């Protein structure tokens, strides 16, 4: 893939491959960190969650003057604590375990996930065996999605766009309050 991009761009791409496993964290910079989660597919697969992190003054130090806080810091007292906000979640190809293994994905502002199958007559066992999700997985978990935007992608090519849209809209009227977007 990199060779194809190199030919397309007519130059080498500066990149570094890093092997990761579930539970790992990758620091992008001071403000953003990526958490690696376990997914479930026919080949090894991972999910990812980008967190925005910031240090906030601990509650017990609220209302104290700036110079007093500075003095506490100089005395070695930790006056702030890290807070994380889940920003972007991505599951890739996975069974619903890719979501359930990392519940914070349901809280990310933006979630990009798969919904390969939507027809009612598909076997859940076969769908799971092949490492995918079904519309029914979303229906069963609709109350868990706290995301501002959920992007469902990777639909089976056996469906037309209009069939997908009709089927999902019928099963999830309002598309999770207008937050579910179908990437067709």
CATH class: Alpha Beta
> What low-confidence regions span 5 or more consecutive residues with pLDDT below 50?
none
Shape: globular
**SS-based structural class?**
alpha/beta
Structural Rg? 21 Å
Quick summary:
By secondary structure, this protein is α/β, with parallel strands linked by helices.
Topology:
Elements lengths: L1 H8 L15 E3 L4 E7 L7 E12 L8 H9 L5 E11 L6 H4 L9 E5 L9 H6 L5 H6 L8 E5 L7 H11 L3 H4 L1 E3 L2
Q: How would you portray this structure in words?
A:
This protein has helices at about 1-10, 65-75, 95-100, 125-130, 135-140, 160-170, 175-180; strands at about 25, 30-40, 45-55, 80-90, 110-115, 150-155, 180. It has a 7-stranded mixed sheet. Helix content is about 25%, strand content about 25%. It is built from 7 helices and 7 strands. The protein has a single domain (about 20-55, about 85-180), classed as Metallo-beta-lactamase, Chain A (4-Layer Sandwich), CATH 3.60.15. The radius of gyration is 21 Å and the shape is globular. The model has no long low-confidence stretch (mean pLDDT about 95). β1 and β2 form a beta hairpin. The protein is of the alpha/beta class.
Key terms:
alpha/beta, Metallo-beta-lactamase, Chain A, 184 residues, 26% helix, globular, 7-stranded mixed sheet
């Amino acid at each position: 893939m990199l060779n194809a991009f190199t030919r397309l761009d007519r130059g080498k791409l500066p990149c570094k491959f890093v092997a990761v496993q579930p539970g790992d964290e990758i620091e992008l910079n001071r403000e953003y960190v990526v958490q690696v989660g376990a997914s479930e597919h026919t080949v090894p697969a991972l999910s990812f969650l980008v967190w925005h992190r910031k240090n906030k003054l601990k509650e017990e130090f609220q209302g104290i003057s700036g110079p007093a806080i500075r003095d506490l810091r100089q005395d070695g007292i930790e006056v702030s604590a890290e807070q994380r906000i889940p920003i972007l979640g991505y599951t890739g190809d996975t069974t619903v375990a890719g979501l359930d293994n990392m519940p914070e994905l349901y809280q990310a502002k933006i979630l990009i996930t798969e919904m390969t199958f939507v027809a009612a007559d598909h076997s859940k066992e076969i769908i799971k065996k092949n490492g995918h999700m079904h519309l029914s997985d979303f229906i069963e978990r609709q109350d868990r999605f706290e995301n501002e935007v959920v992007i469902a992608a990777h639909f089976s090519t056996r469906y037309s766009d209009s069939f997908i849209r009709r089927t999902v809209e019928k099963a999830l009227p309002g598309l999770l309050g207008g937050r579910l977007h179908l990437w067709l």
